[in-house]
Amino acid sequence: MPSHMWLGIRIVFIAAWAVAGLLQHERSPEMPLPVWACLVALVGAVLIMKAWVGPMYPRLVSGMSWVAPNWMANPFQKREPLQAFHLLAVSFIALALAMLIRGILAHGMSDAASNVAALFAGAWGVGTYLGVVGLQEPFVKPVRGKPNNSLERTREG
């Protein structure tokens, strides 16, 4: 597929999450989410990326370095996990922003900060994004003469 097509697919994917955030139903009072869960989501996402995704994938695709997240790359490749996690992180951030906007439109500014579900989604998205950024240093190798986000791959020697 042409690279601009992947950009369009990514935009549609992120827009779908944003629309879901705008159309979400009110959070059920029977199942409150504590505010501290947002910190757990943020730290948990970073740790999952660093402790599970980072060590797991190099064993599965030995000898290949990853490509830094690129909006023009296919986000659904098994050999390029950072592409998918980057897309998911941005999608969760879009979901959270849309949920906050919906809360402001429905209840005004006074209730916007109390939307813990939106804060949780945003924390998970930011944590995943930070994990992706943290994994670029050890696992993304620059292609000689190309920028680090080049779509070409290199074999490690």
Describe this structure as you would to a colleague.
This protein is an all-alpha fold and 157 residues long. The chain has one domain (3-25, 35-139). Helices cover 64% and strands 0% of the residues. The chain is built from 5 helices and no strands. The chain has helices at residues 3-23, 36-60, 81-107, 109-112, 116-139. Helix 1 (3-23) packs parallel to helix 3, helix 2 runs parallel beside helix 5 and helix 3 (81-107) packs antiparallel against helix 5 (116-139). The longest helix is centred in the middle third of the chain and has 27 residues, at 81-107. The protein is flat. Mean pLDDT is 78; it is low at 147-157.
Short description:
With 157 residues, this protein is mainly alpha-helical. The protein has helices at 3-23, 36-60, 81-107, 109-112, 116-139.
Low-confidence stretches: 147-157
Distance between the termini: 30 Å
Number of DSSP strand runs: 0
* Secondary-structure content class: mainly alpha
Integer-rounded radius of gyration: 18 Å
Oligomer: single chain
Q: DSSP helix count?
A: 5
Mean pLDDT: 78
Order of helices and strands: HHHHH
Range of helix content: 55-70%
Tell the overall outline.
Answer: flat
Number of domain units:
1
Strand content: under 5%
Biggest β-sheet strands, sense, barrel: none
